[in-house]
Design brief:
With 373 residues, the protein is an alpha+beta fold. 26% of the residues lie in helices and 25% in strands. The chain is built from eight helices and 20 strands. The strands form four sheets. Strands 6-7-5-15-16-17-14-18 form an eight-stranded mixed β-sheet, sandwiched between helices. It has a six-stranded mixed β-sheet with strand order 9-2-1-13-20-19, covered by helices on one side. Strand 15 and strand 16 form a beta hairpin. The protein is globular and about 65 Å long. Bound molecules: flavin-adenine dinucleotide (FAD).
Length: 373
């Protein structure tokens, strides 16, 4: 039984059903929905991964499996645009990306500010900034990816129920009883993919997860042609105070140039999230547009509020439950998990069915927080 059919849950249902397992996926909202962490038309995918070089093998598998998903669906799911990471000397986004590049021998270019400004005229770049150009970066279409995995999971024989929240679960005999408003279900194995609700579902994980409120904005640029898909890469700009903004080229079918901040926002409770955009939310993106992307600094089209579920070290948690070997947990994606969903779907199916994964995920285990299995 898979609890939460969002990003990770939908991918896991697909892989579990592909392995021939009898799967029930329960989702409290719609399948797909915009209430969790997966909405907003685009999610960045990068190979020169600044967060940690150990993610690179998982990323390679993710790229492969996104290609397989789009082939199976006959729909575009991933677009490679290249990515530029900009920042002052010593910026985490540069140093971290370089260490992935060096450790895994990744194709890239290292540019000074003048060369970066010549190639990417969208940006006003301070003279001392540097730029790493990651040729493999691009974006994944999140709504399509989650809906696509859910559809293919159903076609592979999984049973998925939307609008059916899991209220509680407990061990019973060799398995578990899971209660919802509609029924009590018996499950041999459980996989929790509850995103921002994880702490409410699995109270005894031994790790504190912090949910934060994360606004995204779309504006209509003064010179739209500069910001079209094909005219520019995905981008991250780290500022001198260590904060950063990121964004995407404009996508057909979702009007506007998307900009957001990756700084952790205000702590939130997933059930009481303030989903109304505030003027202060717009000011956060206005600042980067005014200072660094002036030709995009046009009227606001829309804002949406999303949630990060942060682990203490901002790296993912993908492991067995500390006390129940037949319970698998995927959480704490800390604002950078979407791009991995294709590979993590495989990992979660393997952990659930085999007790171990063939992909290198040891660094994502609970033991790094001193939690004993
Ligand atoms: C603004 C923003 C920008 C981001 N940008 C990027 C990016 O560029 N690149 C990237 O890789 N990642 C990005 N991320 C992160 C990425 O989107 C998340 O890491 C990922 O979506 C988390 O997946 P999940 O499955 O944990 O959560 P979700 O996709 O939210 O799925 C959890 C599901 O569990 C369901 N659920 C919860 N409780 C219950 C219950 N009791 N019963 C049944 N169902 C339940 C929820 O309704 C939800 O559908 C971004 C996130 C945000 C918010």
């Amino acid at each position: 039984m898979v609890v939460g059919v969002g990003t990770m849950g939908a991918a896991a249902c697909y892989h579990l059903a592909g392995r021939g397992a009898r799967v029930l996926g329960l989702e409290r909202f719609d399948i797909p929905n915009a209430m969790g962490s997966a909405a907003g038309f685009s999610r960045m995918i990068r190979l020169a991964y600044f967060e940690h070089p150990d993610y690179v093998p998982l990323l390679r598998r993710s790229y492969q499996l996104w290609d397989e998903l789009q082939a199976e669906l006959g729909l575009e799911i991933i677009k490679i645009t290249g990515g530029v990471y900009l920042g002052p000397p010593g910026a985490e986004v540069l140093e971290g990306s370089l260490s992935s590049v060096r450790q895994h021998d990744l194709p890239h270019e290292w540019l000074d500010a003048a060369e970066a400004a010549r190639r990417f005229p969208q940006f006003k770049i301070p003279d001392d900034f540097r730029c790493l150009h990651d040729h493999q970066a691009g974006l994944v279409l999140p709504e399509r990816a989650v809906a696509g995995y859910a559809e293919l999971a159903l076609r592979r024989g999984a049973e998925l129920h939307g609008q059916e929240p899991v209220l509680s679960w407990e061990p019973a005999g060799d398995g578990f009883i899971v209660r919802t408003p509609r029924a009590n279900y018996a499950a041999a194995k459980l996989l929790f993919c509850g995103g921002a609700w994880t702490s409410k579902l699995v109270a005894d994980l031994g790790v504190r997860l912090t949910v934060t409120r994360q606004p995204m904005a779309w504006v209509w640029p003064k010179k739209p042609a500069l910001f079209e898909l094909g005219a520019m890469p995905v981008w991250i700009m780290e500022h001198r105070d260590g904060s950063n903004h990121y964004g995407f080229p404009m996508l057909p079918g979702s009007p506007g140039f998307k900009v957001a901040s990756h700084v952790r926002g205000a702590p939130a409770d997933a059930d009481q999230l303030d989903r109304a955009p505030r003027e202060a939310d717009e000011q956060v993106v206005r600042r980067v547009l005014q200072n660094h992307i002036p030709e995009a600094n046009g009227p606001l089209l829309s804002m949406r509020i999303c949630m990060y579920t942060n682990s203490p070290d901002h790296q993912f948690i993908v492991d067995r439950h500390p006390r129940h070997s037949n319970v698998t947990i995927a959480c704490g994606f800390s604002g950078h998990g979407f791009k991995f969903a294709s590979a993590l779907g495989q990992v979660l199916a393997e952990l659930t069915l085999d007790g171990r994964s063939s992909l290198p995920i040891e660094f994502l285990g609970l033991s790094r927080f001193g939690v004993k299995q």
